[in-house]
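sorry for the late reply, my laptop died twice this morning and i had to redo everyting from scratch. anyway the thing you sent over, i finally got around to it. pasting the sequence first so we're on the same page, its 318 residues, then the predicted structure underneath. double check i copied it right bc i was rushing
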Amino acid sequence: MFRYTIKRILLMLMTLLIITYMCFVLVRMLPPAELPPNDPHKVIIELRREAAGYNKPYMIQFGIYLRDIFTEFDWGVSDVGRYFGQEVAGIFVSKLPATMIVNLYSILISIPIGIILGIVAALKKNSWLDHAISTLTMVCISVPSFVYAFVIQYFISYKLGWLPFLMNAGTNYFTWSMFVSMIPPIISLSMGVIAGFTRTTRAELTEVLTSEFMLLARTKGLTRAQATVRHAMKNCMVVVLPSIFGQFIGIMSGSLIIERIFAIPGVGSLYLDSINGRDYPMFMMLTVFYTAVGLVASIVVDISYGFIDPRIRMGSRK
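ok and here's the structure:
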């Protein structure tokens, strides 16, 4: 298992490096943001771009980029927009808490609801309740999260007036008023996650309930509830728990569109602003961040299988 983990980490780093280089080259192939002729910072910006190697081959530019990151943790300085002259690393750190908190709330709400609905659907297989849950699950998975955002804003915020349209400004994330303003984006993000956990739990638990060892457990005198809790749920969690770990690792990725719709001051809206404003240092840092989060989540899910189910860990030795 240790060798497998090291191998996966090395492959992850290689993949991250390749993706970063591809994005770096594609970004540098585009013309940088045009500067007004009377801009007093024009000379400074041009000198900064020259130091970054804009007039050199892409491989050398990429080497300079990596050198600055590893030696000085310098991800560059924003050249355009409202963050002009600020280090992109500092801007990113200031925006990250809002993204993490909103997504953390949505996951903490989604996991128990999704698992409970999946258990109910599996235990009531082929009943009207199972069909209703399965239908709602497919609808929630098929509809994008931003559609829920517009529906929530229209009915709950506009028609009923129960919740605010946008998230409150400021950094008081743990006040009641701030939490209330987070409820619309939390619900929007939770719908798809709840549906995913419901479908996974139902599929796995349905298969386990029809296994031969469950019949053996019933013949030993266990009731259906006892057999389900002691045996079926344990085997079902082999698949469900890794997905939970992956979701917790992935909370930092956030949702680009949801953050823009609800004015969440997180990294998602920062990403869109960097694309629209051609803020290449900011774009590159966020691209590396999102790619790294996805790769780490994938590794955590794969490795967690071996720790949850000893059979998988033993099979890796063959």
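Residues 88-123 form the longest helix (36 residues).
thats about all i looked at so far, will dig more tmrw
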